Amino acid sequence: MSNNGNRPKLELNLGQSQQVTLLKPPHIGSSQYGEYYLYSVDADGEEKSFFATPEIHNQISEMNLGPGDTVMIRKLAVQNGKRVNAKMILEVVSKEQP
To answer: In 10 A of CB 44, how many CB atoms?
Structure first.
């Protein structure tokens, strides 16, 4: 396995979306850049690491999503004055938990 034995990272470009299935509860930690939310996801049959934004992590938590649940993650361009920023959007595709 390349990437020093780590799972490949799920990375989206602006305007891109990816359907994923959550595999495990998130690993929450902190680094020099602040708190992070690392999810193991199945993307097109391959296990990948997904670093969720705080907003996406909060949505997953508030909707009680967990292993087996499938979501669509979208990365959209949002105009902010003269700047274009990225915004992540989460949509539930299917929910396995009661």
So the answer is: 8
CA 77 vs CA 4, 12, 71, 82: distances in Å: 32, 12, 20, 12
Write out pLDDT tens, residues 69-90: 999 999 999 988 999 889 999 9
Bridge partners of 66, per DSSP, are none
Question: Strands, E, within the chain: which ranges?
Answer: 17-22, 27-31, 34-43, 46-52, 70-80, 83-94
* Global pTM value: 0.86
Kind of pairing between the strands at 34-43 and 17-22: antiparallel
Q: SS3 of 45, please? A: coil
